[in-house]
Amino acid sequence: MAPDSSAAVPAPRPAAARAESSAMKRFARRRSTIAFLMTLPLILVIGGLVAWPAGYAIYLSMLNRRQTAFIGLENFDILLENETFQSVIWQSCFFAITAVLLKALVGFWLAHMLHHVPARGQKMWRGMLLVPWVIPPALSTLGWWWMFDPSYSSINYLINAIGFPSVPWLGEPWWARISVIIVNVWYGAPFFMIMYLAALKSVPDQLYEAAAIDGATGWQGLRHITLPMMQNIISITVLFSLIVTFANYDIVRVLTNGGPRDLTQVFASYAFQVGVLSGNIPRGAAVSLFMFPLLAIIAFFVLRGVNKRTKEMA
Amino acid sequence: MAQVSLRKIVKEYEGGVQAVKGIDLEIADHEFVVLVGPSGCGKSTTLRMIAGLEEISGGEIDIGGAVVNDVPPRDRDIAMVFQNYALYPHMSVRENMAFGLMLRKFPKAEIDRRVNEAARILDIGVLLDRKPKALSGGQRQRVAMGRAIVRDPKVFLFDEPLSNLDAKLRVQMRTEIKKVHQTVRTTTIYVTHDQVEAMTLADRVVVMNHGVIEQVGPPQELYHHPRTRFVAGFIGSPAMNFIPAKVEARGAGLVLLLPQGTELAVPEHRVARYQPYAGKSVTFGIRPEHLTDTQNVNKPHVAFLTLTPEVIEPMGMETLAHIKLEGAEVCARLDPLVEAAPGVPLPLAADMNNMHLIDDATGLVI
Fold this sequence. Notes:
Chain A is mainly alpha-helical.
């Protein structure tokens, strides 16, 4: 009996199935599909570690204290009517804006000085100036706390030595606010310094030479060449630092613990006090989310400006 | 506008390395002077010292009758065009051109007038509101020139301004620069390593080598009467041929004995000049256009020789024959109709009226 040829040779697949298979292959080979698949792990990480906690915090801020009922924006309403929180808003804004401006100025000044130090010495100075930024802030703030101590302050010792009276660094509200800002600037300025130093190095020397020949003094060169050329990096560092400084917790917690009389509380330390210490997690979440919409809008406009300048100049 | 004088200018770096070794140069008002030489010869350093961008280690620079050694660049009343244009990337073309005038507090109407006039001369009116990034290399170069022109300075300085352009654009911009100088007549000092640029642009060419000036003169003078072997070899493309030779007496005259045994008779009017070198080894220099095929040669003092080319390069308007001689590479310029082939002996004619003889000991043209 002749072998059954239909059993030995597989039956040809229907045309529709073949077309579907090649369409799948084409889809898998598309650059956008490959790009999506390759970024998928990152999307999952960001989703799990950023988007989900953020969404959950928003959800929490709309619950009652026991987290049993949805109360909409009531937590925000209550906070806005609370006098302590009103002063927290003011204190946080004063702290963040002053500290960021000072960090930017000190960082720029240090970067400018370093930029003019010969290459060999520059490495050593750069390393030394970065030390405050690499020490864990809780630890270094403890050091500052000792230096501000009312009885044994080494800073007051120096102030006394030149004939001035002791300063109540952490005991008087305004001095306490200034102390928190000083420590934050001491900790954060090296980050600005290193970013600005990189930006300064990327400005071609010939632009300064052209400006010098065009008639620019050193100050005019700084104003018309250096600062515009660094505008993008200045915008990004200020935005980044503003977000981080608004969320600062450790320095206030270690140095003043929000005192005296809650007059150095900022959003993060107050959120911890309300949410964890007082056991009202939803209201604590509302405190911590308070600046989010404003910072998001600022970030949108700053990044749009950066994008536009990059397209025009790069 | 002004004259520029360099007197015993020295530039010494740390460690005692001298980039410029005491040069003297007088540049007249309205003159277009080109400093030319190979990399590291000190030409750019000299220009940067004139601009005030490099400190002077010794000597004096005088612009418009005033010594400017200690005057900062902004007070020297000069304008400079850089190799990479150095346009301010955050400013529009108009702002780039107006920047120098703005710093000098010119009235806005005057700034606008000068910018528009410079834009008209350079044909960049439509680019005024663009940022440098949106311009081609040639357009950027024009803007850089515009920035210099609006200032109406005493002196223009150009530091290899065409080096970043492609060959075609370079030729075009070269003409533009010459046109601009013919229009504005500002004293111009131009640095390049390209001898063709130097020859085509300059009223006078300054050839530099190893921090010293080898020769100063109008382009034709440098080409036909080089003073040193370096100048003879640097100016001209293809470069002058240098062939080791021996001067021999033949009766009342002299001949040059080439490595492969050919004898070339020295013209009578040069015999007295070369007589002291009889019996000595020298270098025989002859430009490729003076070593040609034997067609249509009816000049006096032509010597004939036969050489075998290794490579033939038809260029269209001419054909170049490259010949390897003992101790020398030789190039001859042939009529394009001459049939020449590699490995086939080629009869050539050397125009001995245009020969050069170089003293090997001093490197000077005899």
